[in-house]
Amino acid sequence: MDKLEVSKATADPWDSLKAFTAARIALGRAGTSVPLKASLAFKMAHAHARDAVFSSLNLDLLLEELEQFQLPVHLLHSLATDRQEYLQRPDLGRRLHSASAALLSEEGQTFADVAIVLADGLSATAVNTHAVPLLQILLPALQKAGFKVASLTVVEQARVAVADEIGELLGAKLSLVFIGERPGLSSPDSLGAYFTYAPKLGTTDEGRNCISNIRPEGLPYAFAAEKCLYLIKEALRRKLTGVALKDEMNLLES
């Protein structure tokens, strides 16, 4: 009896391109399907992405680490009562709970240049991992440039637009929210930064600028902080953000 032939994975001629991207390319094939190793890796990545969506802020560690910046820190919550409601009702994640809004109202108008918000978004893992290392570079740069920074705020069950209400309550010229982005199958811990000049309730997305994929495997902390500082300077100088503010930072000189 002839021995049964075992199907082996056939190498992909584009294999060399894998050095330039984390995307799933050049996986090879086993018969008419992908190799078992690639199939299992995909399932693992999908599980990591799901875990990121349901991850929570490590509040004890995060609040302890934020003490190094010697700024007041407020822990806030959106109108979404839990993760399930947050995912089903994006609108609730865009507004502060009344108790959180009252807390900021008691502080009063700070007339700061920048209000920095840390929001869990769709990947609290990203905030837990990347927010403090990024702030360690950005905050000294902002202070060196002469900008006044408002109290730091940490918001649970939050969407990007929650920073509009926070910035308005604190009387800041610009709000900057660092938020966990929607997880991808190669990036469950991607951090995004959104800038809004003259933040107020009702601001829509065309009035913001965004820096995406902040993490060591994407946009490194130092470069992300430099780009944040550039956009903040330009936004405050020109008194605008959004589609009218273009990123013209010379990448070759950074």
SSE layout:
Blueprint: H1 36-53, H2 59-66, E1 73-77, H3 83-88, H4 98-107, E2 114-119, H5 124-144, E3 152-156, H6 162-170, E4 174-180, E5 191-197, E6 208-214, H7 221-238
Parallel strand pairs: 1-3, 2-3, 2-4
Antiparallel strand pairs: 4-5, 5-6
Helix pairs in contact: 4-6, 5-7
Low-confidence stretches: 1-7
Q: What is the chains' assembly state?
A: single chain
Secondary-structure class: alpha/beta
CATH T-level topology of the largest domain? Rossmann fold
- Tell me the strand percentage band: 5-15%
Assigned CATH architecture of the largest domain: 3-Layer(aba) Sandwich
Which radius of gyration do the C-alpha atoms yield?
21 Å
* Biggest pleated-sheet summary: 6 strands, mixed
Q: For this structure, what is the CATH class of the largest domain?
A: Alpha Beta
- Tell me the number of structural domains: 2
| Secondary structure: number of strands | 6
